[in-house]
């Protein structure tokens, strides 16, 4: 594959057989890109109205439109008694129905814009070099990094400098990633036709069936192959979060605020750098003139998410939800989508590289338990583990009121909406099991039918099957999947203890480690309210021949004699365990520092960068880029870790050191809301 750099509008589209819209079923009201544009011209409100889709539908073609909602339409007096056509015309002028020139003529997609530009400018605020390198090595971003400036924490006078002149490649990138321009091909040929889309899914929210949910503000705009030699065959889906209303927005506005968008961009890249399976983020684009009403009026932003797929457990629940639940305003009792279930299963099996549906469920469970083991090992709390937020690929997705552990507290709840602690740190593995059970419930009839015929089901597999037959298939399916939870917990424990050994600098697997080393270590942190991450990293300086220095760092001068004795006893056990491995102090320090982050994306760090960005978004570009760099390289010894005192350091290095600190105690354990 060519290594030529291409502007975003000229990136290749995935081959037809690897495109979601060629394999799954679209919304019958918007069945094709051509029909989508017809609707945009004639009756554009159709694509923005919340509605329930048929059971077999997986997605709806939709075009980004990040403008305030309710729409701020000033209807002329002479049109107020009309039949709504004036309003449809107002919307149509803001839909992307005008073909415009691309920065390059390469590629199969065309670039479209609205007759009337969207409200205000789109401002490129951040671009992840790591995501660009890993996922889009052939993407030309023009002079974007010149615009963003040198990554820097300390205050800069750059805001007063002249910005780079307009650049077609960078402007095209910002326009597309900011929802101002749209990529599409309106061909009648299904192998060429292409347009953005949003997924339909359902889910259990805080344990209760919530009916149809779907991508209420996320719109996928492209699937493109990775051109790196070691990633050949990998397809990346590019999705805009906060791109405007979709049929799944219900009463919401389809927008995202700058605050939550900053949180998602930074955490996605931080999680990847820690080795935790996650979706990625390529960019952050601010929309400073688009107001968003939350607890207070804020400004909008769009972050571009990246993953092989955003299919989640809720997609399967949409095909076969609970039988005895009726929800007013959420679709009532949703119709079954048995053919939709078959198509979705075939698509997901290909994504996971498995042959049977039973193996697919096992793989989904295995991947999610491994992901959760990494969450627990690195003190990450998701906050909203609803089944519609659990990826079938075992990726961390949908970053909301998340947090990384500060003072170690296994019962910590990071989401202040979660009053009962359903999604507390301690219960996260249990909640993954709940999601796996939801997947089993939804897909059990299909698994049972395959068990019965000892082969994959074919098109129309459930036609003519009555409720009794479906129930028989369900029972057979549940029987076939009965051991998955137990197997999943074993996978979790194996992965979790392996990661904890790694964080403690232990190479060899010893069966007594969990009970003799790891659990007592965690208990000591809990009992003596110690910081989770800095305590792990401090062990890198431990020397069995001179334990006193690390003991002083761990307990300090203010701790009780009891705490000092307890830590001294644990360090003696730890020292004995290290002697079994026979490595040098330097080797062990390198291992520990390579597994325990120097920089942690703490709540106080997020609050500071958000405050500065809200005050001056463009002026915060260098800060955002530096935090992206630190989040993408968390194990580096930022801030001259072993260097001199603060006053001997340059200002930027002092700031690095400050951003690696635990921070003010008022931010320790702070809870966030779901408002975003």
UniProtKB/TrEMBL annotation:
One of its GO terms (molecular function) is metal ion binding. The keyword Nuclease does not apply. It comes from the Eukaryota. The keyword Nucleotidyltransferase applies. Keywords: ATP-binding, Magnesium, Metal-binding, Nucleotide-binding, Nucleotidyltransferase, Transferase. GO terms for cellular component: mitochondrion. Its cofactor is Mg(2+). Belongs to the SELO family. This is Selenoprotein O. It comes from Dacryopinax primogenitus (strain DJM 731) (Brown rot fungus).
């Amino acid at each position: 594959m060519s290594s030529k750099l291409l502007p975003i509008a000229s990136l290749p589209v995935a081959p037809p057989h690897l495109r979601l819209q060629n394999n799954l079923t679209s919304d019958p009201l918007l069945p094709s890109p051509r029909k989508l544009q017809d609707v945009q011209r004639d009756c554009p409100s159709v694509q923005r109205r919340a509605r329930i889709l048929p059971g077999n539908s997986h997605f709806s073609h939709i075009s980004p439109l990040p403008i305030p909602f309710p729409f701020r339409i000033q209807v002329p007096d002479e049109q107020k008694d009309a039949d709504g056509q004036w309003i449809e015309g107002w919307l149509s002028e803001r839909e992307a129905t005008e073909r415009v020139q691309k920065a390059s003529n390469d590629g199969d997609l065309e670039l479209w814009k609205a007759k009337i530009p969207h409200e205000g400018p789109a401002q490129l605020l951040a671009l992840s070099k790591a995501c660009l390198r890993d996922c889009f090595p052939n993407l030309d971003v023009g002079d974007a990094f010149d615009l963003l400036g040198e990554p820097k924490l300390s205050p800069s006078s750059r805001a007063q400098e002249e910005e780079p002149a307009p650049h077609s490649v960078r402007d095209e990138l910002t326009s597309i990633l900011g929802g101002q321009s749209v990529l599409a091909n309106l061909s009648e040929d299904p192998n060429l036709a292409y347009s953005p889309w949003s997924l339909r899914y359902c889910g259990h929210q805080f344990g209760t069936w919530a009916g149809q949910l779907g991508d209420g503000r996320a719109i996928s705009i492209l699937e493109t192959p990775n051109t790196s030699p070691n990633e050949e065959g990998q397809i990346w889906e590019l999705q805009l979060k906060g791109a405007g209303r979709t049929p799944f927005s219900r009463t919401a506005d389809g927008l995202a605020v700058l605050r939550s968008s900053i949180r998602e961009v930074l955490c996605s890249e931080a999680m990847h750098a820690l080795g935790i399976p996650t979706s990625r983020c390529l960019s952050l684009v601010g929309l400073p003139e688009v107001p968003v009403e939350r607890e207070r009026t804020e400004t909008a932003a769009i972050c571009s998410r990246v993953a092989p797929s955003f299919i989640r457990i809720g997609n399967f629940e949409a095909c076969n939800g609970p039988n005895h639940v009726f929800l007013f305003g959420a679709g009532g009792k949703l119709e079954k989508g048995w053919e939709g279930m078959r198509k979705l299963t075939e698509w997901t099996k290909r994504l996971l590289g498995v042959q049977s549906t039973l193996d697919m469920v096992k793989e989904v469970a295995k991947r999610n338990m491994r992901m959760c083991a990494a969450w627990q090992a690195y003190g990450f709390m998701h906050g909203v583990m609803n089944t519609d937020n659990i990826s079938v690929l075992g990726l961390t997705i949908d970053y909301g009121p998340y947090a990384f552990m500060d003072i170690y507290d296994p019962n910590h709840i990071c989401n202040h909406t979660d009053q009962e602690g359903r999604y507390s740190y301690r219960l996260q593995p249990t909640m993954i099991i709940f999601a796996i059970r939801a997947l089993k419930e939804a897909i059990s009839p299909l698994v049972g039918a395959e068990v019965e015929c000892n082969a994959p089901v074919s098109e129309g597999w459930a036609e003519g099957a009555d409720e009794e037959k479906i129930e028989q298939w369900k029972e057979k399916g549940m029987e076939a999947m009965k051991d998955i939870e137990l197997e999943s917990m074993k996978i979790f424990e194996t992965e979790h203890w392996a990661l904890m050994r790694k964080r403690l600098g232990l190479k060899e697997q010893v069966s007594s480690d969990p009970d003799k080393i790891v659990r007592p270590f965690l208990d000591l942190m809990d009992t003596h309210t110690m910081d989770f991450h800095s305590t792990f990293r401090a062990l890198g300086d431990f020397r069995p021949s001179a334990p006193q220095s690390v003991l002083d760092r761990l307990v300090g001068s203010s701790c009780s004699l009891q705490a000092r004795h307890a830590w001294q006893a644990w360090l003696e056990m730890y020292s004995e365990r290290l002697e079994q491995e026979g490595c040098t102090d330097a080797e062990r320090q390198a291992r520990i520092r390579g597994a325990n982050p120097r920089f942690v994306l703490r709540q106080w760090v997020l609050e500071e960068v958000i405050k500065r960005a809200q005050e001056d978004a463009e002026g915060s570009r260098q800060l955002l880029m530096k935090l992206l760099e630190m989040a993408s390289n968390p194990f580096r010894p930022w801030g001259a870790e072993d260097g001199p005192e603060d006053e001997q350091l340059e200002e930027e290095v002092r700031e690095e050191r400050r951003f690696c600190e635990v921070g003010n105690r008022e931010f320790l354990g702070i809870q966030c809301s779901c408002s975003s």
